[in-house]
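User: Last request for today: this protein with guanosine-5'-diphosphate-rhamnose, please.
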Amino acid sequence: MKKALITGITGQDGAYLAELLLSKGYEVHGIKRRSSLINTQRIDHLYEDIHEHNARFILHYGDLSDSTNIIRIIQEVQPDEIYNLGAMSHVKVSFDEPEYTAQVDGIGTLRILEAVRLLGLTDKTRIYQASTSELYGLVQAVPQSETTPFYPRSPYAVAKLYGYWITVNYREAYGMYAVNGILFNHESPLRGETFVTRKITRGVAQIALGQQEKLYLGNLDAQRDWGHAKDYVEAMWLILQQDTPEDYVIATGVTTRVRDFVRMSFEEVGIEIEFTGEGVDEVGRIKACNNPAYQVEIGKEVVTIDPRYFRPTEVELLIGDPTKSKTKLGWEPKYDLQALVKDMMQADVKLFAR
Ligand code: NDP
Ligand code: GDR
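Assistant: Here's the final one, the structure of the complex with guanosine-5'-diphosphate-rhamnose:
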């Protein structure tokens, strides 16, 4: 039985990846942080009592800022595959916590690589590093591929740049199977509540149900290449199953503005929205409602710009070129944006209707 170790198992991707690997027959180990409240909601359905024989889902307390802890867990588990998904993953928050972000997202990656090397596991353990389209930052060329130059625009992206290159360096220096998946934005009903897509689908569901007045957002012009996390964890696994270790872009190749994601989310519940005004004065109002289940007021302002959500330096346009992953990995996403919005909206309407 293959053993996988996932850092960031309590996060969106960790939860979907754990589910996928369990379905493939892996023994799955995950690193979770100690917190004052239970933080395992996304993986509770996978939990198995460790007192039972043959439990295939095992959690370990740990933190990417603690080398000794990382070394001990890797030594104990002796994993065939490590998926390093743990990170302070919020771009805006990284401007408030730049040093911590560097420690965890940058040096944390080094801690994993170095632990595998020190423990003599370089021939056994394959390592996946969760790299990001945020590396491209300020647009150099589109669509962005494995050969597009990087220009990171946040402490998060700069820390991930270190993670990217130290992974490449350990591969080249020590012959390790250590690879980067350069994943573009991927979302799901499990997405953290403060990322823009989930903030929108939660807000729209609550506005439709009469539980919230309006949605405050930042830059509506930003363009993102959004896919579904379920599809993207399949790609992570494929990236570690190849004969030669290489880095891959994972994306849909389609980009959409934040404003249009808002529009599509309202449409999903039968509400038409109209945007007027410019810059910080732009607002979104309800134009029509074709769903008798919702008593919304036509003309009501439901989207307002709040500059507090602007970033000191923004990434305006991301659109990935998935040619290499399609041809070499045979990877194709099953969800398009419409199907993603539908999945998220249905889940949030259900959540708030309860
Ligand atoms: P989440 O924010 O949902 O999950 C992050 C995970 O990392 C959580 O389990 C979190 O634990 C854990 N974590 C945070 N800090 C530490 C730490 N100091 N030590 C150990 N674990 C820690 O992110 P996603 O699941 O969306 O993303 C997974 C990875 O992929 C991240 O590295 C992210 O940067 C990267 N990525 C994500 C993309 C996306 O669109 N989702 C695109 C490209 C890259 P806790 O639950 O306790 O907070
Ligand atoms: P991103 O995701 O920064 O791309 O990083 P996020 O959803 O936070 O922002 C996407 C775009 O939407 C704009 N935006 C807002 N963003 C948030 N969070 N809240 C708002 O109210 C809001 N209004 C507009 C942002 O300015 C931005 O342009 C995500 C994370 O998962 C990273 O970890 C990952 O590496 C990248 O995706 C790929």
